Amino acid sequence: MHREKMIRLEGFGVKSYDNLWASTEASRHTTFERCLVAMDIPLVGRIISRSLRQQFHESLDDFEQAATGAYDCTQLEDIGTIINDNIHTWFSDMDNLQLWKELQKEMIFEERKEETMNVEQHVTCQH
């Protein structure tokens, strides 16, 4: 729906539209891990997504090439043959692959910031 149509809906004014729009725009910002978990590949959750992110250095393109090719994910920690097969099966489905590509066009991918402690924090924790 267009903005004008939406703000004319009962109980839905300019403020509601603006809030919805802002929320939608904010949801476009995501990370490699969150995107991969959202694809609902069987048994691919946060831990597996983290391993894949690290292996492919947050490159969705490199991951896609591996997932659509013959890359053996079992060489990664936490990934066995079932998860490897699930990844390749999911990406071999043309509907899934099309969804993957369309979402990449709409999303803004951010690098995940690794949480690190500086030396002062570490010293403080020791006392």
From TrEMBL:
Occurrences of domain DisA/LigA helix-hairpin-helix motif (ranges): 34-98
Any Pfam family: HHH_2
Keyword Oxidoreductase among record annotations: no
GO biological process, one term: DNA repair
Keywords for the protein's UniProt record, in alphabetical order: DNA damage, DNA repair
Protein name (database record): DisA/LigA helix-hairpin-helix motif domain-containing protein
Native source organism of the sequence: Clostridium porci
